[in-house]
Write a structure and sequence with these properties.
This protein is of the alpha+beta class. It has six helices and four strands; from the N terminus they run H-E-H-H-H-H-E-E-E-H. The longest helix is centred in the middle third of the chain and has 13 residues, at 94-106.
């Protein structure tokens, strides 16, 4: 306590804390399945087998803290994957991915966020985000505000689910 008081005085009264050095493991990328919600979803046939397989296979592409499906989770500037790119990476067809994504959007599990459409370009750009109440890649105690906002409209669809991160 005396050392802390001395340090506080030396820094002009700023609050001081002592922490431990971060582990190299703290840089490991991970996705968390919210187990109680998965259990509820599986017990209540919320997902089809095809949707379960898709979600399990897609979790490796979830951007840390953002839950966006991206091309490279280790990149400083990852690019959101298109449905065509997802189909290629998963070794399936674009129509299959399109159908699954549409169903998961309707269930509130995926949100399509429209991106900027450059002038003269007819194609729509968008990013796909996974609801963190199903799978989350980040600190579950600190879900990003933007991600929460994306899934605000999905909250009623998850009313009966046992865990709500926000």
């Amino acid at each position: 306590n005396k050392a802390m008081e001395t340090l506080s005085k030396a820094t002009g009264g700023k609050e001081i804390y002592i922490g431990t050095k971060r582990s190299p493991k703290s840089k490991v990328k991970f996705a968390q399945f919210i187990q109680d919600n998965w259990d509820y979803a599986l017990d209540n046939d919320f997902f089809t087998d095809e949707e379960i397989l898709f979600l399990v296979r897609i979790q490796r592409f979830l951007q840390f803290k953002g839950n966006c499906i991206v091309d490279n989770i280790h990149s400083r500037s990852p690019i959101p994957m298109t449905q065509k790119a997802i189909a290629e990476r998963l070794g399936t067809s674009a129509p299959t991915v399109s159908r699954i994504v549409k169903n998961l959007v309707n269930k509130g599990v995926i949100v399509k966020a429209n991106g900027h459409r450059p002038e003269g370009v007819k194609a729509r750009t968008y990013a796909l985000f996974i609801n963190p109440n199903i799978i989350y890649s980040g600190d579950r105690d600190n879900v990003e505000t933007t991600l929460k906002t994306l899934f605000t409209n999905a909250k009623p669809l998850f009313k009966k689910f046992p865990v709500a991160l926000f």
